[in-house]
Amino acid sequence: MRVSVLLACWNAASYVGEAVQSVLDQRPAPFEVIAVDDGSTDRSAAILAGFGARLVLIRQANSGVGAALNRAVAEATGDALAFIDADDLWTPGKLARQIEALAADPELDAVFGFMETFASPDLPPDQRSRLRIPERAEPAFTKNGMLIRSAAFNRLGGFDPERRNADFFAWYARAVGEGFRWRLQPDVVCRRRLHSQNMGRLDRERQRRDYLLTMKAFLDARRGPRARVS
């Protein structure tokens, strides 16, 4: 199974190199890695370019995670798609275990795994002390935790560029309504980094709004069109 790994990056110079390396260290190696630098103003693009031919680098004006990933998907040529956030990590063996699980059941669109959460070593102690970090791995219903067939993603549709702070949540809610077929595997496949620049921490109000709008759209779709009262 040829896997295209897709990454959207915006001002993640402190972490993106480690994220990409956790992908390149996978065995089997991914078929291709496509990184979209979404208008970074730090050294992110230079760090990505430093990987040379090991990844395809696309640069664009800042448009948000959803738009950047849709651009990457449009360039992907693999049989399956995997994603990694620019500040997170894949665990060793992630790709091999998920390829095996997806190949074992042709009826599945995608497989998910579990996720560990950790405080970034550069996080100031006073901020770290206020974090509630789960002691156990949790189901990773995130982009990082998913391997999906390319045909299934194309059938279900891309990410909504308007939901910058809830891009995957909005995609997943819509996909479930379209008959998304997935399975949760018991393996820990990714590690979520908590740091001072997490998008949700920078703009909590917009994230809350995007989640509420997504939930409303999901519930409205489940209810169907309202009957007219004459």
Task: Reconstruct the topology from this structure.
Blueprint: E1 3-9, H1 16-24, E2 32-38, H2 44-49, E3 56-60, H3 65-75, E4 80-83, E5 89-90, H4 94-104, E6 110-119, H5 125-128, E7 138-139, E8 146-149, H6 150-156, H7 167-177, E9 182-194, H8 199-202, H9 204-223
Parallel strand pairs: 1-2, 1-4, 2-3, 6-9
Antiparallel strand pairs: 4-8, 5-9, 6-7, 6-8
Helix pairs in contact: 7-9
Describe this entry's structure for a reader.
It is a single chain. The longest helix has 20 residues, at 204-223. Helix 7 packs parallel to helix 9. Strand 2, helix 2 (44-49) and strand 3 form a beta-alpha-beta unit. Strands 1, 2, 3, 4, 5, 6, 7, 8 and 9 form a nine-stranded mixed β-sheet that branches. Helices cover 36% and strands 23% of the residues. The chain is built from nine helices and nine strands. Residues 210-215 and 225-230 have low confidence and may be disordered. The protein starts with a strand and ends in a 7-residue tail after the last helix. The protein has one domain (3-222): Spore Coat Polysaccharide Biosynthesis Protein SpsA, Chain A (Alpha-Beta Complex), CATH 3.90.550.
